[in-house]
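user: can you give me the structure for this one chain? tokens are fine.
assistant: on it. calling the predictor now.
[tool input]
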Amino acid sequence: NMIAIIVAMDQNGLIGSNNSNNGIPWENKEDLQHFKKTTTDQTILMGRTTYEKIGEPLPNRKTIVLSSMTMDDPRVEICHNLKELLEKYKSSKETLYICGGSSVYKQAMEYADELIISTIPGEHKGNAYFPMELMSSFELKYFKKMKTFILEKYARVKQ
């Protein structure tokens, strides 16, 4: 049971763009397959903006959307208090995958046990970044060069 942050970024930590139709600044099939394989049959959490960019719940996953507003979408569970939710998952038997965006990553970082990071080659255009400065309490545990991206997994350093 753990809280895992799953994210794709470019070499500068860029994760999102307002100008793309799904919020992703690049097209990378291989990374989307990795994301799907990792999160299928799991519980995923995302912010309202990220959810609205995708436009619908991802199939075969329980989706929790963090929102301060009331949302009328029976297909997802709405969460108004992130801290409460993260503390609940910390002591549960389930894994929770945090899928963005920026502010959700920032708030969830201190609760995360693992970071699953796909680095997409190149520099891309966008406006949302991953809080790299909060990664100091994690260490690299797994590194794999995929065909079109680099996959890394970090674990929280036990103090």
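assistant: here you go. Strands lie at 3-10, 14-16, 43-47, 62-66, 77-79, 96-98, 114-120, 128-129, 138-145, 150-156. The longest helix spans residues 29-39.
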